[in-house]
Design goal:
The protein is α+β, with helices and mostly antiparallel strands and 477 residues long. The chain contains 15 helices and 20 strands.
Length: 477
């Protein structure tokens, strides 16, 4: 082969190799942009840059000062509450943007937009248990609270102020490995993270597996294993059930039971970690050597890298709070002000029930179920899962007054009722805690908390009280 032809073939092969290495292959990332000396991993900025720089950003009213202590905890001082929320969003994004991105996508059933086909099954599971409905309901509570909405708008602007100044050579390495850019932040991301944590803390259910054990071993064997928790008649808890709250009771239709009509009960694709619990302690002033209350909170969720918690101090007009929260959420979730402290642990209360009902297809997009003695039409919500590198998938979601249709086997459907489907004003609650001046402010704030059920301890220097707060299904006496 003569020299010119050899050079042409070599050039074609080289171009092909470069093009091939410029695109991802399966789970292998695009190597050329990843290893580029100009914008690759070598160019990742140190997070310590934020410690010593001055940033000029739009959307704030006054000066914001951030001091980092020896433990790298930021202490934020601002001239307005909105600027304080803005700064928290800016800091969270600068330190934990990819973590925030992934955690919120899980709550919105949108992981496949970033990770492709490998997370479609997980997204579909979250759609089918109604997690997007939880997001919608949480957003409705935020929109009803003028102060919470204003804070979240400011926090979102802060996140976007960091994202907007990211040049390709400053992108977090995770985005470079995946070959994507972070989206601009939306307020809905707060509700998506809150929904994900609601599932993480209250999404565990033993009803389906216990029903399978009952079929295999019999009622007597199950009762001997669980004498304190199982009723004498397994069907009784499900046949005439109510969910009760301080403000409203929602009647569940009679005649629904988790019986033996569905033979192949589905498995939960994802089960939250059983050890999600935490501990908190309070010592009253009469038992304290100092003569004041002592409050401690040991929050233990599943181990993650980076840590799910983010410690911070926020100080501004009418607020001075120190504590820890989740990157992606404004204000702190567990902390203290100069006058009041509060601690939060998971309530671990069973708030999910399963019901069977006969279902019948009326037309292509019409389904009805026999709830008790009556047939009622189900509400159809078509949910789309967008898949990176693939075609969108449309999931038909059927809703009844007993919850979403989670699984169908022939003419029988399995419906899931979860207190989280009704929403919870989580941002309003934690905002009030961050501004608390007295223990009574803390106790009043948690009165409207609904999901996930939590154990709150409210304490000032003189006393402490614990409240098991949230909506709990009232099943039987």
């Amino acid at each position: 082969m003569n020299s010119p032809i050899r050079k042409i073939i070599s050039a074609v092969l080289m171009v092909g190799l470069l093009l091939g290495l410029s695109k991802p292959w399966g789970k292998v990332p695009a190597l050329i942009p990843l290893l580029s000396p100009f914008g690759g991993l070598w160019q990742r900025p140190l997070t310590s840059e934020l410690r010593s720089q001055t940033y000029r950003v739009n959307g704030i009213k006054g000066d914001i000062e951030i001091f980092w202590d020896e433990y790298e905890v930021p202490h934020v001082f601002a001239e307005s509450v909105e600027d304080l929320a803005f700064a928290q969003g800016f800091i969270h994004a600068s330190q934990r943007l990819f973590q925030m991105d992934v955690q919120t996508r899980s709550g919105g059933a949108r992981l496949s937009e970033m990770f492709g086909a490998q997370t479609v099954e997980m997204d579909e599971f979250f759609v089918r248990i109604g997690l997007r409905r939880v997001v919608q309901k949480i957003m409705e509570t935020i929109e009803e609270d003028e102060n919470a909405l204003r804070d979240l708008e400011a926090y979102t602007r802060g996140v976007n102020a960091w994202i907007d100044q990211l040049t390709p050579d400053r992108l977090p390495s995770e985005y470079r490995i995946l070959g994507v850019r972070p989206e601009r932040w939306e307020m809905r991301r707060y509700a998506e993270l809150a929904a994900a944590m609601t599932f993480n803390l209250s999404g565990r259910s033993f009803d389906l597996i216990l029903t399978q054990y009952k079929r295999k071993f019999g009622v007597e064997a199950i009762q001997s294993l669980f004498p304190e928790f199982m009723s004498k008649d397994f069907e009784a808890p499900f046949s005439d059930s109510e969910i009760g709250t301080k403000l409203k009771r929602m009647k569940v239709p009679e005649g629904l039971a988790l019986s033996d009509r569905i033979q192949n009960l589905p498995k939960y694709l994802i089960q939250p970690v059983e050890s999600n619990g935490s501990n908190n302690w309070a010592v009253g002033p009469e038992r304290s050597r100092t003569g004041h209350s002592i409050l401690a909170n040991d929050t233990h969720l599943g181990f993650t890298l980076p840590n799910i918690w983010f410690e911070i101090q926020l100080s501004g007009p009418n607020i001075d709070v120190y504590g820890a929260g989740f990157p992606g959420e404004v204000w702190v979730l567990s902390g203290f002000t100069p006058q009041v402290g509060w601690a939060v642990t998971n309530g671990t209360t069973d708030v999910i029930d399963w019901f069977e009902a006969e279902v019948e297809q009326v037309q292509e997009k019409q389904l009805k179920a026999r709830i008790g003695e009556n047939w009622t039409s189900l509400l159809l919500e078509e949910q789309t899962i967008r898949v990176r590198g693939g075609s969108p998938q449309v999931i038909p979601m059927w809703w009844s007054e007993a919850g979403p249709l989670f699984y169908q086997e022939g003419s029988h459907g399995l419906f899931m009722q979860w207190t989280a489907h009704r929403g919870s004003p989580v941002l309003s609650v934690f905002r009030a805690l961050n501004f608390a001046k007295e223990k009574s402010d803390c106790l009043r704030a948690i009165e409207i908390f609904k999901a996930p059920v939590q154990n709150f301890i409210c304490a000032d220097s003189n006393s402490a009280e614990i409240v098991h707060s949230g909506d709990v299904p009232v099943r039987w006496s």
